[in-house]
Design a protein that fits this description.
alpha+beta, single chain, 7-stranded mixed beta sheet, 4-stranded mixed beta sheet
Length: 466
């Protein structure tokens, strides 16, 4: 009897042991992500995929430490950002990844530890290599000013340099190595594709064309690869550029509007994420200056199966319809550089030409000399020139400094909530510079007026007898 009891007890213990072992061997279905951030004024780290199918915000405590579990679905490339800085990481379930960063030298300071450290330290080093080639405007200019064959040789050498770096990490997953080599080649092809336009820009040779055969490597690229589109920014931009060229050529051949060819040809794209991205790329044409607004909106809506996208463009379309010529303009009442506040009502009785800009916006600053010339020419006329900065609060001193240093004239205002300011929202502004013309009664003349550098602006002023 005692023998049987002993056997039962031993059997029970063995069963518990086996269950315990099974629990220990259960696969981990999450990522442990942690880190120490030095000199950061931001309060959170954001981890996300390029297509935003996954996003997780992780708080940073007062000591600069963060940690959390990430319930990711797929192994692959992610990004994490702190404030305006971001970098690529690679994650899979079961990973433990710890990062240390000094935000004063973000990319140069990144060091990873943990069982996913090697693959991510490689990505950090690769990013520094990319910066070395064309991370600065001067570097990019020097690269794209090279003659075609020298340029191709340079970017080919650079691809080899990245692959040599990849080979120096000896324990990487073979599947990852294969993917990385492919993505490094997409970087090469993307640079090749950009060469003609950048060479024109930097050399000031507007009629320049690449030699025959220079772009042959771009032929027969599959632009409908969903995985590569999500994982490689270069592939994403390259496929988008190729698609734009194909549809532009089709529009010219068939003598139809570009947007019509662009949207109609989307039926050939099988990947939903790529189709959604391409639709987003052309959605900016939903603007007050589009004379085919209704047709474009209907085509855009019918082409999309993304309900969030449809909802967003419906809201924008409804706002734009309110911004038609002759409609009352939304009002503003913002801080004036010279003191106090200025509203649209204060300027009633004159035409008002509004420049929506920001100190960080290159194209905005490029318009400043042209705007100054226009202001000088119409100084004594029945028109006020208003420059409305949408810089955020931390750039407020920079705004005041730039107004002073560049001796900006007219009425200099700054919006109260940058992009979220009611006037900006009411005018459906999602890109700058943006120019608006309002008549002396406060009614809209053009909610997306010509830029100062565009001769059409002078034609419009002449037509209105300003």
């Amino acid at each position: 009897m005692r023998y049987m009891k002993t056997n039962v007890l031993l059997l029970g213990l063995l069963t518990l042991f086996l269950i315990s072992c099974q629990k220990e061997k259960a696969p981990v279905d999450y990522v442990l992500f942690s880190g120490k951030i030095l000199n950061s004024k931001d309060k959170e780290v954001i981890v996300y995929t390029n297509n935003k199918s996954f996003e997780k915000k992780i708080p940073i405590n007062p000591e600069g430490v963060f940690n959390d579990t990430l319930r990711i679905e797929n192994k692959g490339y992610y990004r994490f950002n702190i404030g305006s800085e971001s970098t690529a990481i690679h994650l899979k379930k079961g990973d433990e990844l710890n990062v240390s960063i000094n935000t004063t030298e973000f990319d140069e300071s990144i060091v990873y530890t943990g069982n996913a450290s090697e693959i991510n330290n490689y990505l950090a080093k690769k990013y520094l290599l990319n910066e070395k080639l064309n991370g600065t405007r001067e570097g990019k200019k020097a690269l794209f000013l090279k003659e075609a064959n020298e340029f191709k040789s340079k970017i080919s050498e650079f691809e080899k340099e990245k692959n040599t770096l990849l080979a120096s990490y000896t324990t990487l997953d073979p599947e990852f190595i294969t993917e990385e080599k492919k993505y490094n080649h997409y970087d090469y092809l993307f640079s090749l594709n950009n060469y003609e336009n950048y060479h024109k820009f930097f050399s000031k040779k507007n009629n320049y064309q690449v030699p025959e055969g220079f772009l042959d490597e771009l032929k027969n690229i599959d632009i409908d690869n969903s995985k590569d589109f999500n994982n490689s920014i270069s592939y994403q931009k390259l496929s988008s550029s190729i698609y734009k060229n194909l549809t532009s050529n089709r529009a010219k051949k068939d003598s139809i509007p570009y947007y019509k060819a662009y949207i109609e040809d989307l039926s050939q794209i099988k990947s939903p994420n790529i189709k959604d991205n391409f639709l987003n790329n052309i959605a900016h044409l939903l603007s007050p200056s589009n004379i085919n607004l209704d047709d474009f909106y209907n085509l855009l809506t019918n082409a999309s199966t993304n309900e969030d996208f449809k909802k967003r463009i419906k809201q924008k379309y409804d706002k734009i319809k309110v911004l038609a010529k002759g409609k009352p303009s939304p009002n503003f009442d913002f801080e004036n550089y010279k003191g106090g506040k200025t509203s649209l009502a204060d300027l009633k009785g004159k035409y008002v030409y509004i420049d929506v800009w920001a100190t960080w916006c290159g194209p905005c600053k490029a318009e400043i000399p042209h705007l100054k010339n226009i202001e000088k020419r119409f100084h004594s006329k029945n028109i006020e020139f208003v420059s409305l900065s949408i810089d955020n609060k931390k750039n407020y001193p920079k705004w005041r400094k730039m107004v002073a240093e560049k001796e900006l004239g007219g009425v200099q205002l700054i919006a109260d909530k940058d992009w979220k300011s009611q006037f900006v929202v009411d005018y459906a502004i999602n890109g700058i510079p943006r120019f608006i013309l309002i008549d002396p009664e406060g009614k809209i003349v053009n909610a997306d007026a010509p830029r100062p550098s565009n001769p059409e602006l002078l034609n419009l002023f002449t037509e209105l007898k300003i």
